[in-house]
Each structure stands twice: as C-alpha cells, then as structure tokens.
Design a protein that fits this description.
single chain; about 120 residues; mainly beta
Length: about 120
C-alpha cells in the first residue's frame, strides 16, 4: 500500500492515508481504501478509460470525474460522497457505480445501489 503524498496520485496502487485538502488521481488502477478526503476528489483525464475504486472512502467535498470508462468508477463498502460532478473530456461514456454499501447524495437526497440476489 502507498500513502497519499501531496494530494496528487500518479502511480497505480492502493492508498490508505487520509488526505488534507483536494486529491487528484491522474492514473488508472488506483484504489482508495478506508480514508477521508477533506476537500474535493478529482479523477482526472489521465485515468482515461481505466478503473478507480473508492472503498470505504468519505469525500467531504465533491467527487469530480473527468476520466474513467463505462464501468470503471466504483464506490463500494460505505463510501460516502457529498456530490458528484461528471464532465469527461475524452470520447466514450462514463459510469459511476455505487455498490456494496456505497452511497452518494444528489439534490440533497441519498442514493444507494440496488440489491441483486
């Protein structure tokens, strides 16, 4: 596991240290696990169509998604995001999936994933 240094993630891996201020993810293959981001979490264009997983993460600010693919941004295990802004600059679609207890607020209403059995 790696620690977040300076709020800028430029190498794939799992990161588990709570971060002050804004955090930018600029590569695919990143998992944030069991941490709090006190500012905004920005998934940048550098992620392209790759994967980012937020596992039991709290984002106090906004989740800003500018990169990722049709099945690649996953919020799992009690991940809590106050608001989401999606503005992918590249071609193709983007999907932010909440599953396994992930949730987010939209217009001050809480949304949780559907349960599939």
């Amino acid at each position: 596991m790696y620690n977040i240094v300076g709020g800028y993630i430029s190498a794939p891996g799992t990161y588990s240290e709570t971060a002050s201020g804004n955090v930018i993810i600029n590569v695919p293959g990143v998992t944030l696990k069991g941490l709090t981001v006190s500012g905004d979490l920005i998934i940048s264009d550098g992620v392209a169509d790759g994967d980012v997983i937020l596992d039991n993460v709290t984002v106090a600010g906004r989740l800003v998604v500018r990169g990722g693919g049709e099945n690649s941004i996953r919020l799992i295990n009690k991940t809590n995001v106050g608001s989401i802004s999606i503005g992918k600059t590249g071609s193709g679609g983007i999907r932010v999936m909440a599953e396994e207890g992930g949730l987010f607020l939209f217009n001050n209403k809480e949304f949780e994933p559907f349960s599939h059995h």
